[in-house]
Write a structure and sequence with these properties.
Its main location: nucleus. The two termini are about 135 Å apart. About 10% of the residues have low confidence. Among the domains are: about 110 residues, DNA double-strand break repair and VJ recombination XRCC4, N-terminal (Dna Repair Protein Xrcc4, Chain: A, domain 1, Beta Complex); about 90 residues. Helix 1 crosses helix 2. It has about 325 residues and is of the alpha+beta class. The chain has a five-stranded antiparallel sheet. Strands 5-6-7 form a three-stranded antiparallel sheet, with helices on one face.
Length: about 325
């Protein structure tokens, strides 16, 4: 709050037949009150001590009470009324839902020269008007500057938008160009890979003719050692081991077909005679494949049945020659 702060108020009585002009000069700790009636003028200086005494009567803080008085005088309130009567300035406040009015602020008035009071009113009103015009001019200048800055900012924004659109277009063009180059490169590499694959397939077909058959290929399988057999059987379960076991029942020796102690229950074996190899064939080094023995009636007749009762000494006509080297060659 400054010393130059002033307020001009017009108050009327309840009937509207009387009006008074009030001028208030607000200070830090009080205010000066000027009142002009139709033919009289009044003056009063409200000091800090008076405000403090009235605030204590209402059980309020001095600053809060001062702000309330200023608010009630400067602004219109339905529950607040002002009267100038019997050389007193009285501010009434009415509580809500009550018809009784209470004195909220009261001060004694002193009579002053009427013409001097009017001159003071006019001078202060003119000064306030000039100050208001100056503030208005300052606000207009600020508004014009704000409008200029707004136009300048809009121009910069539009320029930035154009630059952004241009940069986006260039970036999109560069991206599309790079993408097309990558596509062409991928297509070229794919065609090159297909050509290489086809040429390699043709080369493989040339090296491996189709006339070769799988029937000419002989697969040899080495016999498994005892150690590998034991290791593989170690991982089998008890059920798998039992399925592999073959239970052999012993038959009594008094069966019908008793072939002797050495032969057991098996039928007699046919022992073929050793086939002789021609000397010309043996000298050429050719390998004679093994020939499966066909159990034909003629071949069976050419062999002798093994008989346990057969005496080897009686077979003098057919001498069997046994050569160890020939046997090893055949193996």
């Amino acid at each position: 709050m400054t010393e130059n702060e002033m307020s001009f108020i017009k108050i009327c009585n309840e009937n509207g037949t009387k009006s008074d002009r009030i001028k208030i000069e607000w200070r830090q700790d009080g205010f000066n009150l000027f009142i002009i009636e139709q033919t009289r003028a009044w003056f009063s200086e409200v000091r800090n001590e008076h405000v403090k005494a009235l605030a204590s009567e209402h059980d309020l803080d001095k600053d809060l009470y001062y702000e309330n008085v200023k608010n009630y005088i400067c602004n219109n309130h339905t529950n607040v009324s002002i009267e100038v009567k019997d050389n007193e300035f009285v501010l009434y406040r009415q509580k809500p839902n009550h018809k009784l009015r209470l004195k909220y602020f009261v001060i004694k008035l002193a009579k002053m020269d009427y013409y001097k009071a009017i001159e003071s009113f006019l001078d202060d009103l003119n000064a306030k008007y000039i100050g208001a015009l100056h503030k208005l001019k300052v606000l207009q200048d600020e508004n014009e500057e704000i409008v200029k800055q707004k136009i300048l900012v809009e121009e910069h924004c539009s320029h930035f938008v154009e630059l952004k659109q241009k940069a986006d277009l260039e970036m999109y063009s560069a991206f599309a160009l790079t993408l097309n180059e990558k596509k062409q490169r991928i297509r070229f590499l794919t065609e090159l890979l297909e050509k290489y694959t086809n040429s390699k397939r043709d080369y493989v077909k040339t090296e491996c003719p189709s006339s070769s058959t799988k029937g000419n290929t002989i697969n040899y399988q080495e016999p498994r050692s005892d150690r590998e057999t034991n290791l593989s059987e170690g991982y089998n379960t008890d059920d798998e081991k039992m399925s592999k076991l073959k239970i052999v029942e012993a038959l009594p020796s008094t069966s019908k077909e008793d072939y002797g102690y050495l032969g057991g229950n098996s039928p007699p074996m046919f022992l073929p005679k050793r086939a002789k190899i021609d000397e010309s064939v043996a000298s050429s080094g050719m390998v004679i494949p093994a020939v499966c023995i066909k159990h034909d009636k003629q071949i069976e007749n050419s062999y002798k049945h093994y008989d346990p009762q057969y005496d080897a000494d009686t077979d003098e006509d057919e001498a069997v020659e046994f050569n160890t080297q020939d046997f090893l060659d055949k193996m």
